[in-house]
């Protein structure tokens, strides 16, 4: 008898996250089959086995899942009823629709987190300006579905500021979109607790990281979060592991957190944690793991959806800094940035996504690691700015 082929993993979505699954899949000997709506997408450039179609098309989903051992996603926008139809046809979907809905719908997520006693900002569903005013200003308004990278999020300081988000939500009401009001949190910084969980229940937690945003887009990640109280780091990891277990998540779960100033309680703790958002896929705040962890989030996601033993999530270096390469009006051909960046910093790790440059677009990221945080920050920031074209004619 011949050797049985390795199980095929079907991946929905043609962006950079699917692209970055390709490298560990090749190393593991795991074939990937891609569903992409663009045959020249970031992931389609590196994966030969692909189906061109839309993630809302059940027939396209059936084609990509045909013969696959499992189906996973690189974004949260696949309709839950389609995932259930695939599961009924015998294709496991990981994460499953009952878990994924908590990343698809912020209103559902807030309701479930409250039921579990997981701390988060005060929130309520609102339908008109009066409800927004009754909730209290200033506040943050979010569409419950479809928003990402700062889209679908508004800071409302005056009643009239609510008109646009109310209009946007009303226009999308037929798609199940509601408007969520959240308190405007006075946070010290943003953290991310990233964990991975397999169907067997095995789970692993990565070091808690600090993230910073630029125009609603994750710009920079420091692993581990500097000056984070060890007890608070453990609390964040335990919270993320608990959420993964309660929601029955399979694969990577990123729990984005606010670290806020805590009221004086006499306990000696200076800060507390609030859950901001959930993501059930490899996440921007985990890109540092490609070069800074024993097992990257991408490899562990594949291991999890195939129910293989998980790899160690521990850091290889004292510090790893990830900075996104964001397109600007000065960005030209990204490849032209290699001679300077590589010569200046031979230890730099560069990950480009094969995308056409445009202002504000995520085009890639760089990772710098070492024992000196300030040095890592300078190296990563310089390289990202160089690729973006924001350092002009500097040639040091």
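Sequence proposed for the structure above (396 residues):
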């Amino acid at each position: 008898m011949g050797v049985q082929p390795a199980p095929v993993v079907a991946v929905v979505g043609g962006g950079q996250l699917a692209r970055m699954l390709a490298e560990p899949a090749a190393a593991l000997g795991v074939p990937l089959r891609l569903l992409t709506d663009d045959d020249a997408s970031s992931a389609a450039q590196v994966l030969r086995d692909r189906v061109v179609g839309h993630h809302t098309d059940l027939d396209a989903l059936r084609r990509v899942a045909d013969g696959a051992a499992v189906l996973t996603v690189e974004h949260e926008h696949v309709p839950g009823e389609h995932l259930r139809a695939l599961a009924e046809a015998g294709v496991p979907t990981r994460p499953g629709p009952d878990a994924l809905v908590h990343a698809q719908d912020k209103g559902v997520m807030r309701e479930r987190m409250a039921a579990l006693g997981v701390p988060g900002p005060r929130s309520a569903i609102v339908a008109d300006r009066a409800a927004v005013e009754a909730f209290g200003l200033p506040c943050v308004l979010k569409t419950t579905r479809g928003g990402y990278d700062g889209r679908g999020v508004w800071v409302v300081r005056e009643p009239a500021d609510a008109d646009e988000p109310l209009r946007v939500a009303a226009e999308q009401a037929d798609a199940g979109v509601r408007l969520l009001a959240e308190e405007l949190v006075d946070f010290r910084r943003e953290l991310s607790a990233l964990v991975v969980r397999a169907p067997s229940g095995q789970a692993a937690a990565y070091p808690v990281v600090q993230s910073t945003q630029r125009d609603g887009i994750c710009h920079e990640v420091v692993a581990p979060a500097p000056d984070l109280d060890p007890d608070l780091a453990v609390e964040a990891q335990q919270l993320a592991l608990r959420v993964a277990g309660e929601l029955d998540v399979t694969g990577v779960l990123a729990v984005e957190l606010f670290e806020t100033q805590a009221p004086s309680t006499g306990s000696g703790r200076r800060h507390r944690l609030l859950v901001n958002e959930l993501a059930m896929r490899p996440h921007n705040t985990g890109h540092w793991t490609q070069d800074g962890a024993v097992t990257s989030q991408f490899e562990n996601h594949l291991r999890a959806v195939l129910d293989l033993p998980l790899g160690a999530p521990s850091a290889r270096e004292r510090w790893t800094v990830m900075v996104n390469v964001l397109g600007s009006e000065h960005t030209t051909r990204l490849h032209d940035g290699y001679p300077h960046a590589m010569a200046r910093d031979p230890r730099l790790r560069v990950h480009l996504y094969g995308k056409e440059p445009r202002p504000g677009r995520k085009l890639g990221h760089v990772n710098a690691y070492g024992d000196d945080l300030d040095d890592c920050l300078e190296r990563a920031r310089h390289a990202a700015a160089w690729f973006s074209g924001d350092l002009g004619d500097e040639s040091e």
